[in-house]
Amino acid sequence: MMNQTLNVGLVGYGMAGKTFHAPLIEATPTLELTAVVSGDADKVKADLPSVDVLPKAAMLFARTDIDLVVIVTPNSTHFSLAKAALGAGKHVVVDKPVTISLSEARLLKSLAINAERMLSVFHNRRWDSDFLALQEVIASGELGRVASLESRFDRFRPVVPDRWRERRQPGSGLWYDLGPHLLDQAVLLFGMPKAIFVELGSLRDGAQVDDDFLAMLAYERKRVVLQAGTLIAEETPRFRVNGTRGSFVKFGLDPQESWLKEGRRPTTYWGVDPWPGRLMLENGEAGFIERRAPTPPGDYLAYYAGIASALLEGTPPPVSIDDAIGVMTLLELGLDSYRQKRWLNLK
After folding, report:
1. pLDDT of 306 higher than 60
2. Distance CA 159, CA 170 (A)
3. Residues in contact with 152: Cβ distance below 8 Å, sequence separation at least 6, in sequence order
4. What's the gap between Cα 320 and its chain centre?
5. How far apart are CA 62 and CA 44, in angstroms?
6. For tag attachment on the chain, is the N or C end more exposed, with fewer CB atoms within 10 Å?
7. What number is the average pLDDT over the span 285-313?
């Protein structure tokens, strides 16, 4: 029987491992961050003096005291590392996207089933405050039948940084970085679309890969538009949803990422969003009623709490491999749409 505290090994200690995964794992009572695989032991020890630092992932996978392996490495390495971890009998969490191809994602699912091990993917923006607010508004029915959704994730980063996501290699670029988040949220709200159209751009000086995208998802009597860019200086709505009875608009990003980058750790007031959404609802002959929509606190901790519950209590994981395969399907079909310059239907 597994211990009530799960020992976790983290593979990778770049921005995502250091900023997101390590702090969230440490803040989860039933998880113990035991070892980190990194080529920079001094960097890890400065933040996590009590963990073991290993130079190779194989050394981590060989340890019998590790229950869960979390893979936070460049996208092109996700498949090989997850395959090896599952082969070593470990439960596995992979940072999004699960792999860089649909065929690899499906193979990992088969490997996890055969190994009788949990495989989940870190789609953490399901627990963004703004998305939780959007879910509540749609579920309330106040907007009537939803006809369209615009979801934007814009930044102003005119200088291209020297990091793997910005280099010409498989799995790099903004579509594979922010695309999984926006696609996952859209599918959670409305299910898989009937068709997809994607346009990618490399707009910054010196850009080697896509740093701007527009994706449109077609549903029955509904259209979803997803956009992200790196040259957007003026604030744009994070969400705008329109229905038969009114509209909802939400400005401002969930604060959790910025807080984690500042070194803050989850507390009682974690994830509180200071920017409420705005509802504009029909009011018959009186015109419209405008009011604020409450924004629930964001809660990235819910992901790792769900992982612990899945392993200790047998509940479903917070993000299933089937969820990740759906996102991977749209990522890959979106690339085909961009190359062919046309709408593509899902089979």
Report:
1. yes
2. 22
3. 226, 227, 228, 236, 237, 238, 239
4. 13
5. 21
6. N
7. 93
The SS3 call for residue 30 is coil
- The structure's pTM equals 0.94
CA distance 244 to 148: 10
Give strand ranges (E) for 128-236. Answer: 146-154, 195-201, 212-219, 222-229
Contacts of 313 (CB under 8 A, 6+ apart): none
Pairing of strands 277-282, 246-250: antiparallel
Q: Comparing C-alpha atoms, which of 307, 264, 315, 320 is closest to residue 30?
A: 307
For the segment 113-129, what is each residue's pLDDT rounded down to a tens digit?
A: 999 999 999 999 999 99
Please give the Cα distance from 197 to 297 (Å, whole number).
33
Query: How far apart, in whole angstroms, are the C-alpha atoms of residue 153 and residue 278?
Result: 18
- Contact between 209 and 166 under an 8 Å Cβ cutoff? The reply is yes
Mean pLDDT of the chain: 95
| pLDDT for position 1 | 39
Question: Can you give the pLDDT at residue 3?
Answer: 55
Residue 87: CB atoms within 10 A of its CB come to 13
